[in-house]
Amino acid sequence: MRSVVAFGLSFALVGCGVSGDGDTEPGDGAGTDTSTSGDALPTDTTVPTEGGTDTGVAIDAPEGGVCSGLGRYCGSRLGLDANKLYDCNEGKIVGTIACSGPCIVVKDSEQDLCPCPAGDGRYCGDRVGRDARYLWDCKGGALTQGPQCGKCSAGSAASDSCAPCASGDGDYCGAIVGGDKNKLYTCKGGVLTVKADCGAACVEKPPGTPDTCPACPSGDGAYCGGPVGLDPNTLFNCKGGVFTVKEKCTATCYVAPPGSPDYCTTVGAGLLCSHVQWWNSALTYGPYMSYGWWDTDISAGSGTPIQLRHDSKLDKEGVYGWGWMPEFTDQVTKQRFRFLHLRLSAKYTTAIGTVYPAGTIVGLSGGDTADTGLGKYSTGAHLCVQTLAEYRTVFPAGKDACK
Prior knowledge:
By secondary structure, the chain is mainly beta. The chain has one helix at residues 391-394, and strands spanning 31-33, 53-54, 59-60, 70-74, 84-89, 92-98, 121-124, 134-139, 142-149, 152-153, 161-162, 170-173, 183-188, 191-197, 221-224, 234-239, 242-248, 253-254, 263-264, 283-290, 293-298, 305-307, 312-320, 323-330, 336-340, 355-356, 361-364, 383-387. Among the domains are: 53-162, no CATH class; 221-262, no CATH class; 272-394, Glucose Permease (Domain IIA) (Distorted Sandwich), CATH 2.70.70.10. It is built from 1 helix and 28 strands.
């Protein structure tokens, strides 16, 4: 339902060996790496007071006081302004917060408080330095999160409330009401509750018509959370675009090829007998060392399903002239490896950081990689495996039990 506008590695690598018909594979080249790296910087969302934090240049705190450690203290404890809170970090004042009156010293605590701006009561988040999407109950300076609003309305004194729903009670996409764009909310009396996880951006409808979740990616059925933006180790049931938890996986969630339902696996669930155990196949070239990686070519016809030998975590994945290239860390051997010459149209494991179980179909061998749109490098159907340790150290030959 809608009546308003929403408010609210790259890395170089070398190619692999020589293809089945003798063509040399690429050296360093351009491609599109869709992996991510690094952790997000932390954001302080716990400012317990009215007004914002002054995060200017750090200054020295008065010596011999409580500011020698980490904490948030009233100015009265530092010989400074009693109407301000001061953020301390190892002898430095790194921020200040203006209170509506003398701040409250909390005995035996490193977190003093600003008083409630107009006494005990309920406040919009932006009046007390908290998340503006919520109402907050303030008592004696301590804050407790209340209901989520589509829009908060400041009342008299300490009686703020949620503003009425923009188009009346009903279902709204998160992007419209300042929530998660992949969730559908129900608004009633201005208060929001999550109705459904959509697994993708919610669909906004014309004014007066309830918003909805999009259709399930491959129709109604079971989906691992990773590819649809939800918990990767939980199996969800999708019906009419709405995702509900079907099962918390005890090990990992298996992402099946399109047209087949995903499912939970147990540790050591095993390999699939219906697909080749390629580590026992004939080596057609290599292994040889090239730019820090061992290159090994393996006989594999075009369209061969490539499965994981052991549980493996996806570290990176990218598209290059030589095809789609996912990179993993083997959870048994702890060795890194990556596949080259997989089809762009058959990317079955794309959730970075997910541990995929043994037997997971990573993708399909391609041979001719012209479908990447980046040129034609490999003309003979085969699989290339690159490893940091010598190939047989990472993938020793030997028949594995399968199911």
